[in-house]
């Protein structure tokens, strides 16, 4: 799965992901076509694999970004509020912002300042990204994402881009009713995606999904 969707251009990569059934929703395809991964991945941006971006972070593989968008899509309506924990390169933050345009807002939370700066700089490489940054459609903040970001809560959708050691209650608390949280969780040295829904009646359900490999959601490095 990791390699066969790779392409020679952003368009080829996204078309191959769609052809291989990794993108099924037209709105997700449209949003991913609209964000050039080369602005976010310094090496081999059109390869369907994770790439290192420094500071012990990686930009996730395109098929994982696609999977997160497809899962969260019912909650990504124009005007929606979204939280992207561990925003790293800023790629998914930007794709999510395209999906909630117009009037939406995505807050990217990152605990390493140089990565906050990289996310901002990457997003500002395109006219669409600059517009989103300037009109408040995207906001990057430095914080411990395990605590969410109460200032802009509640959120229709929350994405976590690093493997959590547990189901952080502040993230569930900051979900709207209804709302959806997509997060990798580490249990017994294995990681799985969990999709956590807060339903209309306020009840919370958890669905365990595919096995994955993400960098861990941790304390910020010292210094
Ligand atoms: N979605 C990003 C993933 C980056 S890797 C992308 O595709 O580019 C995971 C990121 O989570 C790293 O940038 C790391 O610095 C960040 N991270 C880890 N623990 C964190 C925490 N407690 N709070 C906020 N960010 C965290």
UniProtKB/TrEMBL annotation:
Q: Which keywords annotate this record?
A: Cytoplasm, Methyltransferase, S-adenosyl-L-methionine, Transferase
Asked whether the keyword Metal-binding is assigned, the reply is: no
Q: Where is this protein found?
A: Cytoplasm
Q: Which GO terms describe its molecular function?
A: protein-L-isoaspartate (D-aspartate) O-methyltransferase activity
GO biological processes: methylation
Instruction: Assign the protein's first listed, main location to one coarse class.
Output: cytoplasm
Q: Which Gene3D superfamilies match?
A: Vaccinia Virus protein VP39
* Main enzyme class: transferase
Family assignment from sequence similarity: Belongs to the methyltransferase superfamily. L-isoaspartyl/D-aspartyl protein methyltransferase family.
Task: Name the chain's protein.
Answer: Protein-L-isoaspartate O-methyltransferase
The record lists the organism as Oleoguttula mirabilis
């Amino acid at each position: 799965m990791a390699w066969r969707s790779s392409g020679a251009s952003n368009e080829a990569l996204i078309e191959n992901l769609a052809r291989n059934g990794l993108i099924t929703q037209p709105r997700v395809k449209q949003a991913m076509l609209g964000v050039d991964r080369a602005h976010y991945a310094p090496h081999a941006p059109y390869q369907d694999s994770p790439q290192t971006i420094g500071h012990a972070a990686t930009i996730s593989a395109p098929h994982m970004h696609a999977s997160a968008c497809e899962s969260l899509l019912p909650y990504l309506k124009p005007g929606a509020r979204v939280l992207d924990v561990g925003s790293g390169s800023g790629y998914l933050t930007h794709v999510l912002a395209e999906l909630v345009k117009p009037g939406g807002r995505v807050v990217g939370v990152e605990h390493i300042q140089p990565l906050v700066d990289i996310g901002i700089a990457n997003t500002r490489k395109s006219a669409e990204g600059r517009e989103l940054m300037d009109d408040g459609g995207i906001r990057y903040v430095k914080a411990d994402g395990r605590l969410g970001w109460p200032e802009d809560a509640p959120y229709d959708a929350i994405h976590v881009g690093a493997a959590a050691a547990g189901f952080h209650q502040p993230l569930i608390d900051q979900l709207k009713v209804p709302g959806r949280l997509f997060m990798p969780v580490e249990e017994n040295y294995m990681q799985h995606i969990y999709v956590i829904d807060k339903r209309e009646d306020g009840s919370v359900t958890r669905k365990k999904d595919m096995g994955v490999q993400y960098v861990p959601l941790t304390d910020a490095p010292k210094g």
